[in-house]
Amino acid sequence: MEKIQITLNINDKPCEVMVYPHDTLLEVLRDELDLTGSKESCGEGICGSCTVHMDDKPVRSCLTLAMEAVGTKIKTVEGLANGDDLSDLQQSFIDHGAVQCGFCTPGMLMSADALLKNNPKPDEKTVRKALAGNICRCTGYAKIVEAVAHAGNPQDHCPDCKTGSKAKE
To answer: N or C terminus: fewer CB in 10 A for the chain?
Structure first.
């Protein structure tokens, strides 16, 4: 089987890569493009660690063939920040202690980002539902849910905010 050249739009940049027809998007992101934020954990689409956006919708990159991504816009966790400036959501995760070992964090961020784009002020139940497909083995999810809810509903006097993030403004 021979490799095929494809062009992918990753984080608003065209990327030409050589792929086998059976290569997953996750394999291409990590192995060919050195975008290692997305993680492979279960390899079955259950854990959510590999979540990326395809045309603004969260998808499991371990189940998506790279060939399926041709002609779409892919956004990875690396695309959330603006250079060295973290997004409000990323900063909220830091401020609220929502990052444990960090393995699930990229998928959690991508699922939460999709939620906040469609529902910028979610309540706790909505946040929990949006994150239901993401498994974290380190925590009870409380700090993650708080971080997402706060990013969507910034408060002036948040006791958990430790830095001067935009989310506090």
So the answer is: N
